[in-house]
Amino acid sequence: MKHQLKEIDYSLMKISSSAFGQQQMIPARYACDGADINPPLEIEDIPEAAACLAIIVDDPDAPRGTWVHWVCWNIPVTHHVKEDASPGIQGRNDFGKHRYNGPCPPSGTHHYHFKLYALDQQLDLTPGSTKSALESAMAGHILGFGELIGQYKKN
């Protein structure tokens, strides 16, 4: 998806969390070692024309290629995604679930990309759709993008 973002004009949004900072360690509460719930997220600089938001969380350090932890779309425009929320329509992650599943690296420290998209329209996607289906549906509808990267290593 990154190559497509470079080809279009979009606004940069800021996504942050009170649980961890950019490139900092994600607390175990938000990982498979803990409660395995999504962290709270704060969003700034959402384009005024945004109709909804979408979130993709993935781990590009996974041994078999990028591992998808969360796919969610048609999130009402908001500046806060609460902890342990189901803010929009849930897609299927690589654990085979329709929800957030947190960091769970087999070994070493992995990087987790919380990618936020502001879209110009609601998406007509079936609940349980994959990251790939979401990326295809978002093409041509992205008004804004922001990314928060956290790290995690099992104890």
Secondary-structure map:
Elements: H1 2-7, E1 11-12, E2 14-16, E3 41-44, E4 52-59, E5 67-75, E6 80-81, E7 89-90, E8 110-119, H2 131-138, E9 142-152
Parallel strand pairs: 1-9
Antiparallel strand pairs: 2-3, 3-6, 4-5, 4-8, 5-7, 8-9
Distance between the termini: 32 Å
CATH class: Alpha Beta
Q: What is the percentage of strand-forming residues?
A: 25-35%
Uncertain spans: 1-6
Care to count the β-strands?
A: 9
- Overall pLDDT metric: 94
What is the count of structural domains?
1
Predict the CATH topology: Phosphatidylethanolamine-binding Protein
How are the strands of the largest sheet arranged?
1-9-8-4-5-7
Q: Please give the radius of gyration in angstroms.
A: 14 Å
What is the correct CATH architecture? Alpha-Beta Complex
Helix content: under 10%
SS-derived structural category: mainly beta
Order of helix and strand elements from N to C terminus = HEEEEEEEEHE
Q: What gross morphology would you assign?
A: globular
How many H/I helices? Answer: 2
CATH superfamily: PEBP-like
Largest sheet: 6 strands, mixed
GO molecular function: protein kinase inhibitor activity
Keywords: Protein kinase inhibitor
Protein name: Kinase inhibitor
InterPro entries: PEBP (IPR008914), PEBP-like_sf (IPR036610), YbhB_YbcL/LppC-like (IPR005247)
